[in-house]
Amino acid sequence: MRILIVEDDREAANYLVKALREAGHVVDHAADGETGHELASSAPFDVLVVDRMLPRRDGLSVISALRAEGNHTPVLVLSALGQVDDRVTGLRAGGDDYLPKPYAFSELLARVEALGRRPRQQDVETRYSVGDLTLDRLSHTVTRAGQDIPLQPREFRLLEYLMQNAGQVVTRTMLLEHVWEYHFDPQTNVIDVHVSRLRAKIDKDFDRPLLHTIRGAGYTIRDTGRDAGGDAGRPAS
Amino acid sequence: MTVLTTTARVFRTTAIKLALIYLAALTLASGAVLVYLSQNTATVLRDQIVETVDAEISGLADRYQVAGIRGLVATVDARSRRPGASLYLVTDFAANQLVGNIEELDDRVLAGESGELQRVVYTPIGGGAQRAALVRVFQLSGGFRLLVGRDLQEQQYFRSLLAEAMRFWLFVLAALGLVTWVFVSRRVLKRIDAMTATSRRIMSGDLAERLPVEGSGDEFDRLAIGLNTMLTRIESLMQGLKEVSDNIAHDLKTPLTRMRNRLEEALRQDAAGAGGGGPARMVLEQAIEDCDGLIRTFDALLRIARVEAGSSGASFAEFDAGVLVQEVAELYAPVVEDAGGVLESVAGEGLVLSANRELIVQALINLVENALKYARQDEGDAVRVELRALREGLDIVLAVSDDGPGIADADKERVQQRFVRLEESRSAPGSGLGLSLVAAVARLHGGRLELADGSPGLVARLRLPANREAGEAAGRG
């Protein structure tokens, strides 16, 4: 993926560039809003990571300007000292996702990758398949190896989100945001409990597990049987 | 505010007590003055009458001596015709009236000897109602009797005038007292109300607010100025404290984040190089976990500071608190069940709340996580947690109750402060900021956090005004 980082804090930017390159992405960096805007409009990027507080032009106005020009590259907004409503204003300005500082790099990587691979028109896909597991969004059914798996509505949404991002790491906060629409940092293992319940339903009676825990990052759903070699290269694991 | 409570409040004021006391004292004093005055006047009048009557009698007696009965009759006749209050009567030995301006009189009055002044009732010449008079009878030689007196109509009229004046004066006094009382109590009440409302706002977190000073220099102004000086001092102290803790949190967060990132980088390189699983990896992971814990604490501290600082920054939206409680219950039910406990939720319908949803969720989850964390006395104990959303008057209450050990009364206020943890060893995970945030969120919404005994266990109630404007108005009284 080609990623543009617009961030004025030199150290934070260096770290991000380095870490994202290590994760196998092509990364460009702009140190102020004006340069960021020029770079973003002159070359195609898969994802923009934009800090809110920037010299010369603030992050939100860069995003609004890009959107006004018809540039719909997904944007992850970073914010240092988030006010209570930072997330709302960030998303209203045209940002696609929001991450308050300080963030764990694994969290940022998961979000950037989810943004970059996000299908432009989500409703086109009505079925998701990972291995022999199939989720039908229209009939609200889940089958594995031809066997119907009954799920609670929330479990269905959890699986739906995981399968939407199949093969990618999904963090606990991402799950909480997209499945429950809560934005907070849980102190307890509340997400793990839900995931393990889902896992019991879709993986327990089958030979090959599809839902994997990625240590220190989150979860991913993928068919290891088919791309067993892909695992070692995962930077977040 | 209803009329009833206003009246009740007015009657409880010091002003009405003072007004009533003043009114009573004034009435007593002026009553005494009036009584004294009327008594004195009566004496003076009587003395005057005695003097005049005596003078006339001696004058007329002289006239009898000089001019005989004819002269006397002529003089008395002339005097009787003059207008005025003087009464005359001359009778012969057979008590026949010779001359005078008295039509009828009790015979016994004339029968006696020359005597003292006496009070009689007579009918004036020409008829009419009986009238009171003070008269004196004088025996002349030859069996003639001379009566000279004074009609008392005038005096009685004067008395009734005095009584009238007294009644009028009492009425004026009462009216004056009432007006004074209304004015004083209204003015005093108004200022007290203003002070109370301001102090409520100050208590709800707006430390920049000051008590109103009218500039008249009266005792209220002096009180307000004194309290305002105190508030300024408190505000600067609080500000200092807040700034210090916020700055510490902010300044330490940045290097902490960098440290965390470096550790993460080391972990990645370790994984890429050695294939993972070495002892260094475990150390690194633990270090990262510790960093995360610290960052979480600082985050919580900063979030509380932001919530406390900015009631204007938060955007409010309407949502159903009952649905929210059900959702949170659904999210946490599996966690409780896995621990062998039960989580139940009861939510009323149509509990529309105008609030910042994100903060309310955070507050509610803090309460639930607290219940999970502290209700279990021993590892493996089954907890029973209940979530409720209900309406209480104008408020919507989100309650989380557990069956744990609860919190002692003495600690209920203290535990809402930052970093206060009841577990003295501080060994269990947690920052002591959870309830502080809940309390701050409650205050931001014009509500409050109530901690009560569930016998057994703790009931944490997040009380929020359903309609924020109404809640504020109620809060300001």
Structure description:
The two termini of chain A are 19 Å apart. In chain A, the strands form three sheets. A five-stranded parallel β-sheet of chain A has the order 2-1-3-4-5, with helices on both faces. In chain A, helix 2 packs parallel to helix 3 and helix 6 packs across helix 7. In chain A, 36% of the residues lie in helices and 20% in strands. Chain A has eight helices and twelve strands. Chain B has ten helices and 13 strands. In chain B, the strands form three sheets. Chain B has a six-stranded antiparallel β-sheet with strand order 2-1-6-5-4-3. Chain B starts with a helix and ends with a helix. At the A-B interface, helix 1 and helix 8 of A face helix 5, helix 6, helix 7 and helix 8 of B.
Notable traits:
heterodimer; A: 237 residues; alpha/beta; Rossmann fold; Arc Repressor Mutant, subunit A; 2 domains; 4-stranded antiparallel β-sheet; 8 helices; B: 477 residues; alpha+beta; Beta-Lactamase; Helix Hairpins; Heat Shock Protein 90; 6-stranded antiparallel β-sheet; 5-stranded mixed β-sheet; 13 strands; rod-shaped
